[in-house]
Write a structure and sequence with these properties.
Layout lengths: L1 H26 L7 H19 L2 H24 L5 H19 L13 E3 L9 H5 L1 E3 H19 L1 H11 L1 H6 L4 H27 L11 H11 L4 H21 L6 H6 L3 H13 L2 H9 L1 H7 L15
Antiparallel strand pairs: 1-2
């Protein structure tokens, strides 16, 4: 049981990176629909640079840089060129996917360097908790830091409140002297960099190695989880670990011939849950429940940032 839960946490780590990155970007008002291609290209770049240099650190840095550049292109296209963010994201995800296949051909099937395992002394010896939380590799520990850091930044710092302001009411934020477009650039690129960490975590750990379409559809799953989580880091993380559970259960059911159909259905459940959640939270009874219990309303709210996808122009 302990090992199964530990496997779920490890499987969810890349999604934590990707969803936290997308949450930050969308909270700032920018939709990064290049997620699927960004994860794919950064996974290839991370594995390739690790193979060339022998350094996992270089691989992660390369993956981060690649995805940050893609995010910067989306920010430039939407902020400076006033192009549709969704259209630009689709184009870039297709381009990045094709580039990963073309540039990664030489690295298919080669042996690379795995992210080092690091059991935390003292903590890893604790019953249950030690095995589940503190007996992983560095990419999993990094996902803890990113998750906690994202939550604290968004809800416990002035900068985090400014970020939410430029995504909810950019005009009001500008009136208070906040540089809306400059901050949108910054947070979109930061979000993109976190997406790059997801790609490297896949090719250097969870799905070790490189092959064409290694992370296909994981970007779309991350987008679905962000919506399912209502753009709140805690709920989004719950969605990531839920999907990790579905992945692990599906793998365990594959050898059972009578349950192979179930194992194929489980990976698409995040999309079903996203639709179900959106239906539930917009029902009248839920709104009435939220009026009576504001704390639950804040936790379960699934309204996107009011300014998401909208171009802000200084008048």
């Amino acid at each position: 049981m302990d090992d199964t839960i530990a496997t779920i946490i490890a499987a969810a780590a890349p999604l934590i990176y990707a969803t936290m990155g997308e949450t930050i970007a969308e909270k700032a008002g920018v939709i990064n629909l290049s997620l699927d291609g960004s994860i794919m290209l950064s996974a290839m770049a991370g594995f390739a640079l690790t193979y060339i240099t022998g350094s996992v650190i270089v691989g992660f840095l390369a993956a981060t840089a690649v995805s940050a550049v893609i995010a910067a292109l989306i920010a430039f296209a939407s902020i400076e060129l006033k192009l549709n963010q969704i259209a630009v994201g689709f184009v870039l995800t297709l381009l990045a996917t094709k580039l990963s296949s073309f540039l990664g051909t030489a690295y298919v099937g080669v042996k690379g360097t795995h992210v080092p395992h690091l059991a935390i002394p003292g903590l890893s010896d604790m019953p249950f908790v030690g095995t589940v939380l503190f007996n992983h590799n560095l990419s999993v520990y990094g996902s803890y830091v990113v998750l906690i850091g994202t939550y604290l930044f968004l809800y416990r710092t002035r900068r985090g409140l400014e970020l939410q302001g430029i995504g909810e009411r950019p005009e009001a934020a500008f009136a208070r002297g906040i540089a809306v477009n400059r901050l949108r650039y910054i947070y979109t690129v930061i979000g993109g960099a976190l997406v790059g960490l997801a790609g490297a975590a896949y090719s250097l750990d969870v799905k070790f190695g490189w092959r064409e379409n290694l992370t296909l559809n994981f970007g779309w799953i991350a987008l679905a989880i962000v919506i399912f989580g209502g753009w709140h880091p805690v709920r989004v993380a719950f969605g990531c670990y839920l999907f990790g559970t579905l992945q692990v259960v599906a793998l365990k059911l594959q050898p059972v011939e009578a349950l192979q159909g179930v194992s194929q259905i489980l990976p698409i459940m995040p999309f079903v849950l996203m639709i179900f959640t959106l239906l539930i939270v917009y029902l009248d009874w839920f709104r009435r429940f939220g009026d009576r219990h504001p704390a639950w309303r804040r936790l379960l709210a699934s309204d996107p940032p009011a300014g998401i996808g909208r171009v802000f122009e200084r008048e």
